[in-house]
Amino acid sequence: MKSKDLKLIVQEKYGGIAQKSLLNEQSSCCGASSCCGELEFSMIGDEYAGIAGHHADADLGLGCGIPTQFANIREGDSVLDMGSGAGNDCFVARAIVGTQGKVTGLDFTEAMVTKASINNQKLGYENVEFVKGDIESMPFPDNQFDVVISNCVLNLVPDKAKAFAEIIRVLKPRGHFCVSDVVIKGELPHALKDDAVMYAGCIAGAIDINEYLKTIGDQGFEDIAIHKQKLISIPEEILAKYLTKEAISNFKISETGILSVTVSARKQSEHE
Question: Which CATH number describes the domain made up of 3-266?
Answer without folding.
Answer: 3.40.50.150
